């Protein structure tokens, strides 16, 4: 089971070296309690609560064959930077999770008998795109006769991916869409950029994601 964090804005693709013994995903139903005179309290269901993903593992002093991976302290600082960032990062847990999240908790433990290994507990919360609703007639009530020129633009901007060295369409599909078999959907949207051969993608090319 591979677990990775991807910060697309910073160009960071971080793979955790040691799989945790367990991954905990917390889901819940939101509700609001109303108090009606003479009838008592009533619970009214609302939207799903934000999901939380928690797991614990460690950064070993020696990462085996992962020579290009950061040292334990560097990895610890990288997680801290992602936590303190105001932008979400993508959490991918193979066959389980592929979500944009905020890292909300990153606890670190140093053990006396293992001074070079760094243990950690991590909690991530699912990120949701804020939804803005405009009230009908608000422009008229405010005296605006410009036909709603102040209305917020709610059009969804297509997501883009910048090709890096060593990338392939199947690898990008796995990272971005969760399934390598979806590479053809990426190719169909970007034929003009890639050209006639889907296997010849070049670093620096910007691809639109489905």
Automatic annotation (TrEMBL):
InterPro entries: Bact_Kbp (IPR052196), LysM (IPR018392), LysM_dom_sf (IPR036779)
Region (Disordered): 133-161
CDD domains (UniProt xref): LysM (cd00118)
One Pfam family here: LysM
Domain of life (superkingdom): Bacteria
Gene3D superfamilies in UniProt: LysM domain
Domain LysM: 159-209
Protein name: LysM domain-containing protein
Taxonomic source organism: Paenibacillus woosongensis
